[in-house]
């Protein structure tokens, strides 16, 4: 895999996006988001063939309006509870509003993820072959709240298993034509990585955090595989702790010495590092991929995960 993005090109896109978003009082944001994704995807290649993102600002705008309305509802609910509780003096009303705020957010979180995956995959292609997502919204809801309940009653200890189960479900329902993705990680491995990384980061006063981040990222990538019949392709990450340390320090220097104007180069450097440290090996004949996936144009989930800054894994 390669990333062909250029800082100068990306900077011009971000500047235009920013100016038009400001001039239109934020209404241009969906078109800005679409233009950004089109550039990032188009700059990414596998075996020198570029990916493509076909989403449009018009599609994203419809979802954007829905997300804004939902966000305003959450804000009104939270501040309404604060007002009715007499600025927090009546804790029963305030805590009820606070609980309802998070209950509503988590109630729609599976809907966000389901919609985002369905839209993002449908609007992505490689060599003209569309990706797709075949997860069931009902099944995701049932599993999500089962895993969330186990995480709550174990005081967070189950969170590693919840993360792996969620990845297995979401990634396992991705298709690239007639090839299907699989995820093979397990919660106990991830739990150990989190636990060891946490204590070593404390002991080393934060220095180990880059190697902790490396271990997490590599584990999540190394357990992804693509299957077609009896053939398969496995992913392998070659990210290193030293590499992440150098990337982070370099990005910080760019931001500081350009007074923030170098943000475009920071994003390009980061995408290039992560993309080009993913290696794919296996025996699937990529020329034999067949188109199987439908087009899906409802971008509400895509807008929601972007608005609430939720990682699409």
Summarize the structure.
With 313 residues, this protein is of the alpha+beta class. The protein is built from 11 helices and 10 strands.
Query: How helical, in percent, are the residues?
Result: 55-70%
Mean pLDDT metric: 90
Q: How many E-type strands?
A: 10
Strand content: 5-15%
Question: Could you describe the largest sheet, including whether it forms a barrel?
Answer: 10 strands, antiparallel
Tally of DSSP helical segments: 11
- Quickly give the structural class: alpha+beta
Q: Which outline best applies?
A: globular
Could you give the order of the helices and strands? EHHEEHHEEHHEEHHEEHHEH
Report the oligomer: single chain
Kindly report the spatial arrangement of strands forming the biggest sheet: 1-2-3-4-5-6-7-8-9-10
Q: Calculate the terminal CA-CA distance, rounded to whole Å.
A: 18 Å
Radius of gyration: 21 Å
Overall number of domains: 1
Q: Which spans of ≥5 residues are poorly predicted at pLDDT below 50?
A: none
């Amino acid at each position: 895999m390669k990333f062909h993005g250029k800082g100068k090109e990306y900077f011009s896109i971000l500047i235009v996006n920013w100016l038009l978003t400001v001039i239109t009082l934020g209404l241009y944001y969906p078109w800005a988001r679409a233009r950004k994704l089109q550039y990032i995807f188009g700059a990414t290649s596998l075996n020198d063939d570029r990916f493509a993102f076909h989403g449009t600002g018009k599609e994203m705008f419809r979802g954007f309006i829905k997300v804004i309305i939902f966000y305003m509802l959450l804000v009104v609910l939270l501040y309404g509870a604060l007002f009715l509780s007499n600025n927090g003096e009546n804790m029963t009303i305030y805590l009820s509003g606070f609980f309802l705020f998070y209950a509503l957010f988590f109630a729609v979180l599976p809907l966000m993820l389901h919609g985002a995956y369905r839209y993002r995959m449908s609007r992505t292609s490689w060599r003209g072959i569309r990706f797709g997502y075949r997860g069931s919204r009902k099944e995701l809801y049932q599993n999500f709240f089962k895993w969330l309940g186990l995480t709550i009653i174990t005081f967070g200890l189950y969170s590693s298993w919840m993360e792996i189960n969620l990845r297995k479900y979401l990634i396992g329902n991705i298709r690239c034509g007639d090839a299907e993705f699989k995820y093979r990680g397990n919660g106990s491995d991830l739990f150990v990585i989190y636990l060891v990384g946490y204590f070593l980061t404390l002991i080393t006063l934060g220095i180990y955090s880059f190697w902790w981040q490396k271990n997490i990222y590599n584990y999540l990538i190394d357990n992804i595989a693509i299957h077609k019949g009896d053939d398969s392709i496995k992913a392998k990450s070659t990210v290193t702790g030293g590499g992440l340390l150098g990337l982070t320090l370099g990005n910080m220097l760019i931001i500081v010495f350009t007074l923030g104007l170098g943000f475009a180069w920071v994003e390009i450097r980061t995408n290039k590092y992560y993309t080009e440290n993913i290696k794919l090996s296996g025996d699937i004949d990529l020329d034999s991929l067949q188109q199987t996936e439908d087009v899906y144009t409802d971008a509400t989930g895509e807008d929601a995960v972007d608005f609430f800054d939720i990682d699409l894994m």
